[in-house]
Automatic annotation (TrEMBL):
<feature type="domain" description="RsdA/BaiN/AoA(So)-like Rossmann fold-like">
    <location>
        <begin position="3"/>
        <end position="401"/>
    </location>
</feature>
<keyword id="KW-0285">Flavoprotein</keyword>
<dbReference type="InterPro" id="IPR004792">
    <property type="entry name" value="BaiN-like"/>
</dbReference>
<feature type="domain" description="RsdA/BaiN/AoA(So)-like insert">
    <location>
        <begin position="187"/>
        <end position="349"/>
    </location>
</feature>
<dbReference type="InterPro" id="IPR023166">
    <property type="entry name" value="BaiN-like_dom_sf"/>
</dbReference>
<protein>
    <submittedName>
        <fullName>Aminoacetone oxidase family FAD-binding enzyme</fullName>
    </submittedName>
</protein>
<dbReference type="Pfam" id="PF22780">
    <property type="entry name" value="HI0933_like_1st"/>
</dbReference>
<dbReference type="InterPro" id="IPR055178">
    <property type="entry name" value="RsdA/BaiN/AoA(So)-like_dom"/>
</dbReference>
<dbReference type="InterPro" id="IPR036188">
    <property type="entry name" value="FAD/NAD-bd_sf"/>
</dbReference>
<dbReference type="Pfam" id="PF03486">
    <property type="entry name" value="HI0933_like"/>
</dbReference>
<dbReference type="InterPro" id="IPR057661">
    <property type="entry name" value="RsdA/BaiN/AoA(So)_Rossmann"/>
</dbReference>
<keyword id="KW-0274">FAD</keyword>
Length: 406
């Protein structure tokens, strides 16, 4: 009989497996995929933002459910994660926003390092259908091929996003069958569907260095503000700032949120007005619609002119002060109303999951069933982009591995 069964050979499961092996335990690991670490291999657009070069306290502050992670993150800090991967022969680099990547820019290097680290665990390509419990204690699993016994069972099945990678939400069903409460799941770090058709007209346009502010109906303070890149798509908005903003748009409901885009964040209204005035004077005999090509990408011009309410054929030298003001307002506050999130399949992470109230934060052990442990995205924790989600998977996997070895 094995000491430990681990369900899921992803970021959390592989880390837990290696930790158990280091402690001399016999480990049996199940994954429905042929190749371990399938999701890891596509993280960070194939580059894997492996952690964030910050303190554990900063991860705790950034994450939903952060306080629960205190023990996990202080016993395996972002610094520890960096030393760990470098120790496994993967040199790292820190980029903007303290995001840490392998120097090679290859996510596969991270996945392969973890697979090497967990060598010694027996890996079975089988799908776990049920956790076996006897007298309140987890004693093994039933898979699509048979029954397996162990002293401890770790569920590290991931969330429900990108189900083609294997994390299709089955871990939630396994946990629910065991009597664990599930906090309803929802997509996070996910593109946004617009209300109306403005984004569709701008499809394919990517804007760098824009200001993004999200407001919620009935709330005075914006729920999110940042600078960066966004992308117009056939359904709405995507890109780094939008994915990050989505984590702050809960609960989502049709029409509840508006994204405000500042197309010229480097210029205040006075500076931008002076700039527009200069362009209009230079092109005084042209039509207004032909005066904006230095200010805006071509695709955006007809939409901006339409929204400003200034007839496109107006001669530049007859554009009034009031009309300039309307143009200015659109440039500094281009609004897109939001209808919904894109489906969970397209989310980077799943919010919600196994309720933290029923998991011991010091061990990752179930408070309901002895010998049952949880790690990674299936827990009700999630964080913004920046390497935090993998750090959480590694730290909780590590702590579960150590606890099972005790
Ligand atoms: C496109 C994309 C890019 C991302 N980029 C980043 C990034 O750069 N940085 C970052 O911090 N986070 C990133 N994330 C999030 C991060 O990948 C996840 O939070 C992390 O992988 C979660 O680790 P995990 O071990 O909990 O789950 P997973 O890595 O999803 O692993 C779960 C494993 O369990 C297996 N499994 C599930 N159910 C069963 C079952 N019943 N039987 C057998 N096996 C099962 C699955 O096949 C899977 O291999 C990204 C996510 C996506 C989708």
């Amino acid at each position: 009989m094995k000491e430990v069964i681990i369900v899921g050979a992803g970021a959390a499961g592989l880390m837990a497996a290696g930790t158990c092996i280091e402690r001399g335990l016999k480990v049996l690991m199940f994954d429905k995929n042929q190749r371990p670490g399938r999701k890891l291999r596509i993280t960070g657009k194939g580059r894997c933002n492996v952690t964030n070069n910050c303190t554990p306290q900063e991860v705790i502050a950034a994450a939903n459910g952060g306080r629960f992670l205190y023990s996990a993150l202080t016993s395996f800090t972002p610094g520890d994660a960096m030393a760990f991967f470098e120790g496994l022969g993967v040199p790292l680099k820190t980029e903007r926003g303290r995001r840490v990547f392998p120097q090679s820019d290859r996510a596969a290097d991270i996945a392969d390092a973890l697979v090497r680290y967990s060598r010694g665990a027996e890996l079975c390509r089988e799908t776990v259908k049920k956790v076996l419990v006897e007298e309140g204690r987890a004693v093994g699993v039933k898979t699509d091929r048979g029954y397996y016994k162990a002293k401890n069972v770790l569920l590290a099945c991931g969330g429900a996003s990108y189900p083609a990678t294997g994390s299709d939400g089955s871990g939630y069903r396994l946990s629910e069958e065991l009597g664990h409460i599930l906090v309803p799941i929802s997509p996070s770090l996910v593109p946004l569907v617009e209300r109306g058709g403005i984004c569709q007209r701008l499809m394919g346009l990517s804007l760098r260095n824009v200001g993004v502010r999200v407001t919620a109906a009935g709330r005075r303070k914006p729920v999110y503000e940042d600078f960066g890149e966004l992308l117009f798509t056939h359904f709405g908005l995507s890109g780094p700032t939008i994915l990050s903003a989505s984590a702050h748009m809960r609960p989502m409901s049709a029409g509840a949120y508006t994204v405000h885009i500042d197309l010229k964040p480097a210029l205040d209204e006075g500076q931008l007005d002076a700039r527009i005035l200069r362009d209009l004077e230079e092109k005084k005999n042209r039509q207004f619609i032909n005066s904006l090509d230095r200010l805006l990408p071509q695709k955006l011009i007809p939409v901006i002119v339409e929204r400003s309410g200034v007839p496109g054929e107006t001669r530049c030298n007859s554009v009034t002060r009031g009309q300039r003001k309307s143009l200015l307002a659109v440039l500094k506050d281009f609004t897109v109303e939001i209808e919904s999130f894109r489906p969970i399949d397209e989310a980077i992470v799943t919010a919600g999951g196994v309720s933290l109230k029923e998991v011991d934060p010091k061990t990752m052990g179930s408070k309901l069933i002895e010998g049952l442990y949880f790690a990674g995205e299936m827990l009700d924790v999630d964080a913004p982009t920046g390497g935090y989600n993998l750090q959480i998977a590694f730290a909780t996997g590590r702590l579960a591995g150590l606890s099972m070895g005790e």
